[in-house]
Fold this protein.
Amino acid sequence: MNGSPKDPVPQPEGQEAKKTETPEPQPASVRKAKPDGKLAGTALKEEDLKDKKLLKEIWNEPGLSYTWSAGVAIGTYLEGLKKGKLMGVRCRSCNRIMVPPRMFCEECFKTVDEFVPVQDTGTINTFAICYIRTDASRQKRPQIPAVVEIDGASKGMGILHLLGEVRPADVKIGMKVRAVWKPSRERKGDITDIRYFRPMGPDELLPAAPTAVKRAGGPTAVKRKAAPKAAGKTKQKAAAAKPKPKTRPKRKGA
Protein backbone atom coordinates (compact mmCIF):
# COMPACT_ATOMS: atom_id res chain seq x y z
CA MET A 1 0.00 0.00 0.00
CA ASN A 2 1.51 3.20 -1.11
CA GLY A 3 1.84 5.79 1.63
CA SER A 4 1.01 9.40 1.20
CA PRO A 5 3.81 12.00 1.13
CA LYS A 6 2.79 13.10 4.60
CA ASP A 7 3.18 9.62 6.08
CA PRO A 8 6.46 9.04 7.97
CA VAL A 9 9.14 7.00 6.22
CA PRO A 10 9.55 3.62 7.95
CA GLN A 11 12.86 3.27 9.81
CA PRO A 12 14.78 0.09 10.71
CA GLU A 13 14.28 -1.30 14.15
CA GLY A 14 16.47 0.24 16.89
CA GLN A 15 16.78 3.61 15.16
CA GLU A 16 14.62 6.61 15.89
CA ALA A 17 13.23 8.76 13.19
CA LYS A 18 15.19 11.96 12.66
CA LYS A 19 13.20 15.19 12.46
CA THR A 20 14.03 17.47 9.63
CA GLU A 21 13.45 21.13 10.48
CA THR A 22 13.22 23.83 7.88
CA PRO A 23 15.24 26.93 8.98
CA GLU A 24 13.18 30.06 9.56
CA PRO A 25 13.90 33.02 7.30
CA GLN A 26 16.17 35.61 8.97
CA PRO A 27 15.96 39.41 8.65
CA ALA A 28 18.10 41.07 6.05
CA SER A 29 20.19 42.81 8.75
CA VAL A 30 21.12 39.49 10.32
CA ARG A 31 21.95 37.92 6.97
CA LYS A 32 24.26 40.83 6.19
CA ALA A 33 25.93 40.69 9.60
CA LYS A 34 26.77 37.03 9.26
CA PRO A 35 27.34 36.20 5.59
CA ASP A 36 27.97 32.54 4.92
CA GLY A 37 28.07 31.83 8.64
CA LYS A 38 31.08 34.13 9.23
CA LEU A 39 31.21 37.07 11.66
CA ALA A 40 31.03 40.52 10.13
CA GLY A 41 33.97 42.88 10.43
CA THR A 42 37.64 42.95 9.54
CA ALA A 43 39.84 40.21 10.90
CA LEU A 44 42.89 41.33 12.91
CA LYS A 45 46.33 40.45 11.68
CA GLU A 46 49.45 39.79 13.66
CA GLU A 47 50.97 43.01 12.30
CA ASP A 48 47.98 45.00 13.57
CA LEU A 49 48.49 43.68 17.09
CA LYS A 50 52.18 44.57 17.03
CA ASP A 51 51.54 48.08 15.65
CA LYS A 52 48.59 48.57 18.06
CA LYS A 53 46.24 49.37 15.19
CA LEU A 54 43.21 48.18 17.07
CA LEU A 55 40.99 51.28 17.11
CA LYS A 56 40.58 54.15 14.74
CA GLU A 57 38.41 57.20 15.43
CA ILE A 58 37.31 59.78 12.92
CA TRP A 59 35.83 63.03 14.22
CA ASN A 60 33.93 65.41 12.02
CA GLU A 61 33.31 69.00 13.06
CA PRO A 62 29.52 69.37 13.21
CA GLY A 63 29.64 73.17 13.07
CA LEU A 64 26.78 73.61 15.52
CA SER A 65 26.20 76.85 17.43
CA TYR A 66 23.78 77.47 20.27
CA THR A 67 22.78 80.05 22.86
CA TRP A 68 21.12 79.77 26.23
CA SER A 69 19.23 82.05 28.58
CA ALA A 70 20.75 83.14 31.88
CA GLY A 71 17.28 83.57 33.38
CA VAL A 72 15.58 86.61 34.88
CA ALA A 73 17.66 86.89 38.07
CA ILE A 74 21.17 86.29 36.72
CA GLY A 75 20.27 88.04 33.46
CA THR A 76 19.42 91.22 35.39
CA TYR A 77 22.65 90.82 37.38
CA LEU A 78 24.77 90.53 34.21
CA GLU A 79 23.04 93.52 32.61
CA GLY A 80 23.94 95.55 35.70
CA LEU A 81 27.57 94.49 35.46
CA LYS A 82 27.70 95.71 31.86
CA LYS A 83 26.43 99.09 33.08
CA GLY A 84 29.01 99.22 35.87
CA LYS A 85 26.77 98.51 38.86
CA LEU A 86 25.94 95.61 41.16
CA MET A 87 22.33 94.48 41.47
CA GLY A 88 20.63 92.60 44.28
CA VAL A 89 17.09 91.43 44.94
CA ARG A 90 14.89 92.18 47.96
CA CYS A 91 12.57 89.69 49.62
CA ARG A 92 9.28 91.41 50.49
CA SER A 93 8.63 88.89 53.26
CA CYS A 94 11.84 88.97 55.34
CA ASN A 95 13.26 92.20 53.80
CA ARG A 96 16.62 90.57 53.02
CA ILE A 97 18.68 91.90 50.10
CA MET A 98 20.46 89.04 48.35
CA VAL A 99 23.52 89.19 46.09
CA PRO A 100 23.78 87.68 43.52
CA PRO A 101 20.03 87.85 42.75
CA ARG A 102 17.86 84.74 42.77
CA MET A 103 14.22 84.00 42.01
CA PHE A 104 13.18 82.86 45.49
CA CYS A 105 14.20 83.44 49.10
CA GLU A 106 15.81 80.33 50.56
CA GLU A 107 14.75 81.29 54.09
CA CYS A 108 11.01 82.01 53.67
CA PHE A 109 10.54 80.30 50.27
CA LYS A 110 8.85 83.34 48.76
CA THR A 111 9.18 84.42 45.13
CA VAL A 112 11.27 87.59 44.83
CA ASP A 113 11.23 90.08 41.96
CA GLU A 114 12.20 93.47 43.45
CA PHE A 115 15.66 94.20 42.02
CA VAL A 116 17.63 96.90 43.85
CA PRO A 117 21.10 98.37 43.25
CA VAL A 118 23.79 97.84 45.88
CA GLN A 119 27.18 99.46 46.33
CA ASP A 120 30.38 98.29 44.65
CA THR A 121 32.22 98.33 47.98
CA GLY A 122 32.36 95.67 50.63
CA THR A 123 34.22 93.86 53.40
CA ILE A 124 36.53 90.86 53.09
CA ASN A 125 34.85 87.88 54.73
CA THR A 126 37.58 85.34 53.92
CA PHE A 127 40.45 85.01 51.45
CA ALA A 128 43.18 82.65 50.21
CA ILE A 129 46.69 83.09 48.80
CA CYS A 130 46.97 80.82 45.77
CA TYR A 131 50.21 79.91 43.98
CA ILE A 132 48.51 77.41 41.63
CA ARG A 133 46.52 78.32 38.53
CA THR A 134 43.29 76.66 37.46
CA ASP A 135 45.27 74.32 35.17
CA ALA A 136 47.36 73.14 38.19
CA SER A 137 50.47 75.00 36.96
CA ARG A 138 52.49 76.99 39.50
CA GLN A 139 52.91 80.75 39.46
CA LYS A 140 55.46 82.94 41.21
CA ARG A 141 53.10 85.84 41.85
CA PRO A 142 50.10 84.55 43.79
CA GLN A 143 46.46 85.33 43.18
CA ILE A 144 44.28 86.32 46.12
CA PRO A 145 40.68 85.11 45.75
CA ALA A 146 38.36 86.48 48.41
CA VAL A 147 34.71 86.45 49.43
CA VAL A 148 33.56 90.08 49.61
CA GLU A 149 30.40 90.95 51.55
CA ILE A 150 28.77 93.69 49.49
CA ASP A 151 27.68 96.93 51.18
CA GLY A 152 23.94 97.47 50.90
CA ALA A 153 23.19 93.73 50.95
CA SER A 154 22.19 91.64 53.95
CA LYS A 155 24.80 90.18 56.28
CA GLY A 156 26.70 87.30 54.71
CA MET A 157 25.70 88.20 51.14
CA GLY A 158 28.63 88.65 48.79
CA ILE A 159 30.57 87.40 45.79
CA LEU A 160 33.83 85.56 45.15
CA HIS A 161 36.38 87.65 43.27
CA LEU A 162 40.07 88.53 43.11
CA LEU A 163 41.93 91.16 45.13
CA GLY A 164 44.42 93.54 43.55
CA GLU A 165 46.72 96.45 44.37
CA VAL A 166 47.61 94.80 47.69
CA ARG A 167 50.38 92.57 48.98
CA PRO A 168 49.34 89.18 50.34
CA ALA A 169 50.82 90.01 53.75
CA ASP A 170 48.63 93.13 54.01
CA VAL A 171 45.28 91.42 53.39
CA LYS A 172 43.12 91.18 56.51
CA ILE A 173 39.66 89.84 57.22
CA GLY A 174 37.38 92.83 57.71
CA MET A 175 39.34 95.02 55.25
CA LYS A 176 37.18 97.44 53.25
CA VAL A 177 37.55 97.10 49.48
CA ARG A 178 36.16 98.72 46.33
CA ALA A 179 35.56 97.23 42.87
CA VAL A 180 37.85 98.25 39.99
CA TRP A 181 35.78 98.17 36.79
CA LYS A 182 36.84 97.72 33.20
CA PRO A 183 36.16 100.66 30.88
CA SER A 184 32.55 100.70 29.65
CA ARG A 185 33.59 99.86 26.07
CA GLU A 186 35.24 96.63 27.27
CA ARG A 187 32.38 95.33 29.41
CA LYS A 188 30.45 92.34 28.11
CA GLY A 189 28.06 91.55 30.93
CA ASP A 190 30.36 89.10 32.74
CA ILE A 191 31.62 88.93 36.31
CA THR A 192 35.05 89.73 34.82
CA ASP A 193 33.73 93.22 34.03
CA ILE A 194 35.10 93.83 37.53
CA ARG A 195 38.86 93.48 37.22
CA TYR A 196 39.37 93.01 40.97
CA PHE A 197 38.66 94.59 44.37
CA ARG A 198 41.27 96.92 45.87
CA PRO A 199 41.68 98.19 49.44
CA MET A 200 39.93 101.48 50.19
CA GLY A 201 42.13 104.39 51.21
CA PRO A 202 41.72 106.53 54.35
CA ASP A 203 40.13 109.33 52.33
CA GLU A 204 37.42 106.90 51.16
CA LEU A 205 36.55 105.81 54.69
CA LEU A 206 34.72 109.04 55.58
CA PRO A 207 32.36 109.33 58.56
CA ALA A 208 28.66 109.15 57.95
CA ALA A 209 26.88 112.23 56.67
CA PRO A 210 24.71 114.31 59.07
CA THR A 211 21.40 112.69 59.92
CA ALA A 212 18.52 113.98 57.83
CA VAL A 213 15.51 115.16 59.81
CA LYS A 214 12.11 115.26 58.14
CA ARG A 215 10.17 118.40 59.02
CA ALA A 216 6.47 118.13 59.62
CA GLY A 217 4.73 119.22 56.43
CA GLY A 218 7.99 120.34 54.83
CA PRO A 219 11.01 119.01 52.93
CA THR A 220 13.79 116.96 54.49
CA ALA A 221 16.49 119.13 56.04
CA VAL A 222 19.76 118.57 57.83
CA LYS A 223 19.72 119.31 61.54
CA ARG A 224 22.42 121.83 62.41
CA LYS A 225 23.32 123.82 65.50
CA ALA A 226 22.34 127.49 65.57
CA ALA A 227 25.13 130.06 65.28
CA PRO A 228 26.00 131.96 68.51
CA LYS A 229 24.42 135.41 68.77
CA ALA A 230 26.20 138.65 69.53
CA ALA A 231 27.07 139.15 73.20
CA GLY A 232 25.85 142.79 73.40
CA LYS A 233 22.37 142.07 72.10
CA THR A 234 22.09 139.08 74.37
CA LYS A 235 22.88 141.16 77.46
CA GLN A 236 20.37 143.86 76.46
CA LYS A 237 17.64 141.31 76.01
CA ALA A 238 18.54 139.68 79.29
CA ALA A 239 18.39 143.06 81.11
CA ALA A 240 15.08 143.89 79.49
CA ALA A 241 13.67 140.57 80.45
CA LYS A 242 14.82 140.86 84.09
CA PRO A 243 11.85 141.99 86.29
CA LYS A 244 12.27 145.25 88.33
CA PRO A 245 12.14 144.94 92.17
CA LYS A 246 8.92 146.17 93.78
CA THR A 247 9.23 149.29 96.05
CA ARG A 248 7.23 149.56 99.23
CA PRO A 249 5.27 152.83 99.83
CA LYS A 250 6.78 155.15 102.47
CA ARG A 251 4.87 155.76 105.67
CA LYS A 252 4.07 159.27 106.82
CA GLY A 253 6.16 160.56 109.68
CA ALA A 254 8.91 158.16 109.06
Observations:
- The two ends are 192 Å apart (CA to CA).
